[in-house]
Amino acid sequence: MADTADQEHESAPEPVTLHGCPLTVAFGQRVLHVPRDQYIKVVKALLGDGFEMCTDVTAVDYLQSPQRSLPEGIAPERFEVVIVLRSLLDRAIIRIRVQVPEADPSIATLFDMYPGSEAMEREVYDMFGITFTDHPDLTRILMPEDWEGHPLRKDYEVGRIPVQFKGAPN
Amino acid sequence: MSIIETIQQGNEPEQGLKPRSELTARELMREIGSVLRMSEAEVAKLGELPADPADDQTMIINMGPQHPSTHGVLRLMLELQGETVLRCKPVIGYLHTGMEKTGETLSYLQGPTNVTRMDYLSPFSNELVFSLAVEKLLGIEDEIPERATWIRMLLAELNRVSSHLLFMATNGMDLGAVSMMIYGWREREEVLRFFQTLTGLRMNHNFIRPGGVAADLHAGWYDEVMRLFDVIEPRLDEYDTLMTGQPIWRERLQGVGVITAQEAIALSATGPILRSTGVPWDLRRDAPYLRYAELDFDIIVGSYGDAFDRYAIRLAEIRESLKIVRQILDRMPGGDYRIQDKKVTPPPRARIDESMEALIHHFKIFTEGFKVPEGEVYVAVESARGEIGCYIASDGSSKPYRMHVRGPSFVNIQCLPHMMRGGLIADAVAVISSVDPVLGEVDR
Question: Can you tell me whether residue B209 is helix, strand or coil?
Answer without folding.
Answer: strand
